[in-house]
Design brief:
This protein is of the alpha/beta class. It has two domains: 38 residues, no CATH class; 300 residues, Ribonuclease Z/Hydroxyacylglutathione hydrolase-like (Metallo-beta-lactamase, Chain A). Strands 6-5-4-3-2-1-14-15 form an eight-stranded mixed beta sheet. Helix 1 crosses helix 2 and helix 10 runs antiparallel to helix 11. The longest helix is centred in the first third of the chain and has 23 residues. It starts with a helix and ends with a strand.
């Protein structure tokens, strides 16, 4: 028995000494660091460039209301070597890189409207794809106003682009690729890019006007992204027989509770801001009818007003909703295999 205990003691001491060498010495730390970096580079959560799967990745699920570590509005729609980003809310570029989305293949950014929580990361997104090796200027699609927004971002980042080209060289970062190109879209007018058919449609986010949603069709599969809007007929029409409808959603019980809380401490200004939010986002109670009328296979809620901070708040957000309605988080991915009816939902982080 003593011999066994002695062997165990020596073994434990050797393990402790090895751990000390690995974690507390420069050489050990360097070996560990190399392995961690290699594992990270090889550990891609998805095979993004699969032409037989239409992927929808939630790179931002939050709205500005409330306190959350989620990114703001951002949805990736991807298939094969083509992918689009719908809106670039704050924090979304971090999630794109975390998911190892092939930024060099970014085909275009599509804006639903020009509220700050939908456009603020455009500069970072453009920079990330330029550095990754995108070979053409980034097209940024949007309704009336897109030229002004894109020109503004180009001007704001003009010095940054100059510095980076001077530092890394024009062969690595060609200056003509760094500036973005605005592309005006018109509601109802189809845009075709490769095998994608993209149909913008008008929504109700007044006083924000114009505001649009987008329908994507690819190899027999379809996804609709509402953007910010009330529950309106135009969304139901655009979503007819779609596989997936991602819709902006507001929880009236949670928003009312927030308004009561700020009112109780005398914050009249914030109470008015919260009250104003109610009339231009879709209450969860109104969305079931939109999905039913459209005949969509799956309804998923994003741009959550407010984003649930824990499981209890998420349960409140989901009150009255059918069990098959998805309340998404950053990192939710919908996989729609081409020419099938299957929808796989996974959480990659």
């Amino acid at each position: 028995m003593r011999k066994v205990l002695l062997i165990l003691g020596v073994g434990s001491a050797l393990l402790a000494a090895t751990a000390l060498v690995v974690t507390q010495t420069s050489s050990g730390q360097n070996v560990l660091l190399k392995r961690l970096i290699a594992a990270r580079l090889l550990d891609a959560p998805l095979v993004w460039e699969d032409p037989d799967v239409l992927r929808v990745f939630v790179c931002g699920s939050a709205s500005p209301l409330g306190v959350s570590d989620r990114a703001q509005s951002c949805i990736v729609v991807a298939a094969g070597s083509t992918f689009f980003i719908v809106d670039t809310g704050a924090g979304s570029t971090r999630n794109l890189l975390r998911a190892q989305v092939p930024m060099q293949s970014l085909t275009g950014v599509l804006f639903t409207h020009f509220h700050s929580d939908h456009i603020s990361a455009l500069g970072d997104t453009n920079l990330a794809s330029w550095v990754a090796g995108r070979t053409t200027p980034l097209n940024v699609y949007g309704p009336r106003g897109v030229v002004r927004v894109v020109d503004g971002f180009n001007e704001a980042y003009a010095l940054d682009r100059t510095y980076r080209t001077m530092h890394h060289g024009s062969e690595l970062l060609p200056p003509e690729i760094g500036a973005m190109q605005p592309q005006l879209i018109v509601s109802g007018k189809v845009v075709e890019v490769g095998e994608f058919k993209i149909t913008p449609f008008s929504v109700d986010h007044g006083p924000v006007e114009p505001a649009v949603g987008y329908r994507f069709d690819y190899r027999g599969r379809s996804v609709v992204i509402s953007g910010d809007t009330n529950a309106v007929q135009s969304t139901a029409v655009a979503s007819r027989d779609a596989d997936l409808l991602l819709h902006d959603a507001l929880s009236r019980p949670l928003v009312d509770a927030m308004k009561d809380a700020v009112t109780s401490v005398g914050n009249v200004r914030m109470a008015q801001v919260i009250d104003d939010i109610l009339d231009y986002h879709a209450d969860t109670d109104s969305l079931i009818e939109v999905a039913r009328e459209a005949g969509v296979t799956m309804l998923a809620l994003y741009h959550l007003v407010p984003a649930p901070a824990n499981t209890i708040v998420k349960s409140i957000f989901g009150r009255g909703l059918p069990a098959d309605v998805r309340i998404v988080d950053d990192g939710t991915v919908f996989n729609l295999a081409a020419n099938t009816d299957a929808i796989e939902v996974v959480q990659i982080f």
